[in-house]
Write a structure and sequence with these properties.
Elements lengths: L2 H6 L4 H16 L2 E6 L3 H13 L7 E7 L6 H14 L3 E4 L5 H8 L6 H12 L9 H7 L4 H8 L20 H7 L10 H17 L3 E3 L8 H5 L5 E4 L2 E4 L7 H10 L6 H4 L17 H11 L1 H10 L1 H21 L1
Parallel strand pairs: 1-2, 1-4, 2-3, 4-6
Antiparallel strand pairs: 5-6
Helix pairs in contact: 5-10, 6-8, 14-15
Length: 329
């Protein structure tokens, strides 16, 4: 199939525009680094790269997968499938610190990345989980204002509906933490240690004029909401997100049109996402643990041990919230 034929097959206008842009980018840059996750978006991205990168000696494509230490065997098998399907090599890289070591060193995931970051800052300043006004707490902890605003719901002075940047958006979480202060370190920085730092090392190792990453804006989450365009040029160099503007219906249409095959994690296990297995930031981690116990029991036992403090604290909070909702009703 020629590049023109590949683009012409595009089932939606969004995909067509994206493929035209991808063709231009892949022609322009000679040394291309592609971050492979083994997930569904990554599968689509590889198909685009393989069909639209010029087949000449001046273009080099390097595929890299990051092993965090809590990856499913289904994902690892899928990497081999992709290598066989496209005749490519996917480099397996792991950082100096994997997830098990990262959570012990920088803190455990809890609730969400934004909330965990604020809790991390409060813990760093010796916060005692006090229910006091913002001004009072600011006098006691003068170098922790952003996290204190989160704790005190003080982003706005006038009465308002709780914002996502305030603890009040999580019902009864403040009350729970006052009664049950965390006895372990909480942080959003596990990903930095086990994935982002290895990403920086990989860019130095393999070079690359540009790095391709399978981020979609419609998917949400910190990665996509923090990015405003399909192309960025910042601290990590030039990065391009060929699927950035795709919505769920575009992705489904692409998969059907180009016969994209996903890993067993999706087609057999029933996963909605892949990545660090059992991550406590996933609100549905209980369902994920049940799935892992069914299909990958060794990994299930491993992540239950690795994330145990975060799981226990989340379960205690959920029980607390349920009981207090019942009291209000």
């Amino acid at each position: 199939m020629t590049q023109d034929e590949y683009i012409t097959k595009a089932p939606t206008l969004t995909i067509y525009d994206g493929l035209v842009k991808a063709q231009s980018v892949l022609e322009q840059y000679k040394n291309i680094l592609v971050s492979v996750s083994g997930g569904a978006d990554s599968d689509c991205m590889i198909d685009i790269v393989e069909h639209l990168t010029p087949k000449d000696s001046s273009h080099k494509v390097t595929y890299v997968w990051f092993d965090t230490g809590v990856e499913m065997n289904a994902t690892k098998r899928h990497l081999t499938f992709l290598e066989d399907k496209y005749g490519i090599a996917i480099q397996r890289e792991r950082g100096k610190m994997q997830v098990a070591g990262a959570v012990r060193t920088v803190g455990y995931p809890f609730y969400s990345k934004q909330f965990a970051e604020y809790i991390y800052r409060l813990q760093k300043h010796g916060f005692q989980w006090e229910d006091e006004p913002f001004d009072v707490l600011c006098a006691k902890y003068p170098n922790c204002k952003a996290a204190l605003r989160w704790w005190c719901n003080a982003w706005k002075d006038e009465p308002h509906k709780p914002l996502q940047t305030e603890i009040a958006s999580a019902k009864f979480l403040k009350e729970f933490m006052i009664e049950n202060p965390p006895t372990f370190n909480i942080s959003s920085r596990c990903c930095n240690e086990s994935k982002k730092k290895v990403g920086d090392a990989v860019r130095k190792k393999y070079g690359g004029d540009i790095q391709l990453i399978g981020i979609r804006k419609a998917e949400g989450g910190a990665r996509s909401t923090g990015v405003k365009s399909c192309m960025t040029d910042g601290a990590h160099g030039k990065q391009y997100y060929p699927l950035f503007w795709w919505k769920a219906e575009d992705k489904a249409a692409f998969e059907a049109t180009y016969n994209i095959v996903h890993s067993d994690a999706y087609t057999v296990y029933g996963c909605k996402r892949t990545g660090c297995a059992g991550c406590p930031f996933a609100g549905h981690f209980e369902d994920e643990l049940a799935m892992l116990h069914q299909y990958e029991p060794k990994l299930a036992n491993a992540v239950e041990h690795i994330f145990s403090p975060a799981y226990d604290y989340t379960r205690a909070y959920r029980k607390f919230k349920k009981e207090h909702k019942g009291n209000i009703l």
